Amino acid sequence: MYDILIVGGGPAGYSAAINGRRRNKRVALVSKEPVSSRLRQAHRVDNYLGLAEISGAEMAEKFRQHAVREGVEIKEDEILNLWQEEEVFYGLGKNEQYKARSVILAIGIPQKATIEGEADFVGRGVSYCATCDGMFFRGQKVVFVSQLPEGEKEANFLADLCEKVFYLPQYKGDYDLDPRIEVISGKPKKIYGTERVTAFVTSEREYEVGGAFIERAGIPLDRLYPGLEMQGEAIKVTREMATNVPGIFAAGDCTGRPWQIAKAAGEGQVAALSAVDFLAGNK
């Protein structure tokens, strides 16, 4: 059982983790990437106090090393679903399940279903986890849309199960893919079918498939924790970074603009202190 479960490995998440540990709490930071790719890919950061002319990759490594020194348990995993039973929060990851007395969401810019038909077919052919749902598509043709290189591992897993895997990368680079996978191009436009998915449409052509897997930086919020109150496209929080759900806090880009590292780090600290106060009140 953790005191604080932090979802997200960007500046807000690492700041929250470090400050939680400084208050002697058992902290788990769960992120699908060791440190957020948005930070790592920054060519140079010039506006963070005291660290002028540092690259995003260098800053990311400093954050990670600091957290390791403080004793933060860093888990390379993806939280697919959060729920609460009595006074305990549960987080279902791809690799394991987590239990905590409080949660801090530091998931970056909130993700949402952006492909036409995506939300309509969740659980009926649309999936966000190949290792979780891949067996349901054995022997079928599927498309895998990925915003991150991490999607290549999931697509390779599907290559052993599916008749055909079409891989639609939304990033540039070299692809480490099973030779049986066909890389396709274009922008994702539409998912459609009747009872289940039967086709996927890109800006270039249509594919007959039985399923569509989507890899983004995070799970859409309405899938992660239903009932979380939003303000526009951001998570609604108080000055203490508290959400409408007691025990769940949020920090960083997911709480709205400005999308800046310093703002995220400050909110992460506030969220950690608020979580500590919440835990003290619930003893």
Structure notes:
The protein is α/β, with parallel strands linked by helices and 283 residues long. It is built from seven helices and 18 strands. The protein has helices at residues 11-22, 37-40, 56-70, 130-133, 151-159, 221-224, 261-281; strands at residues 4-7, 27-31, 73-76, 79-85, 88-93, 97-100, 103-105, 126-127, 141-146, 164-169, 182-183, 188-193, 197-202, 206-208, 211-215, 230-231, 234-235, 248-250. It has a five-stranded parallel beta sheet with strand order 3-2-1-7-18, with helices on one face. A five-stranded parallel beta sheet has the order 8-15-9-10-11, covered by helices on one side. It has a three-stranded antiparallel beta sheet with strand order 4-5-6, with no helix packed on it. Strand 9 (141-146), helix 5 (151-159) and strand 10 form a beta-alpha-beta unit. Helix 1 (11-22) runs parallel beside helix 7. It is globular. The two termini are 14 Å apart. The mean pLDDT is 92.
Query: What Rg, in angstroms, do the CA atoms define?
Result: 19 Å
- The overall strand count is 18
Largest sheet: 5 strands, parallel
> How would the global form be characterised?
globular
Strand order, largest beta sheet: 3-2-1-7-18
Structural class: alpha/beta
What helical percentage do the residues reach?
10-25%
Euclidean distance between termini CA atoms? 14 Å
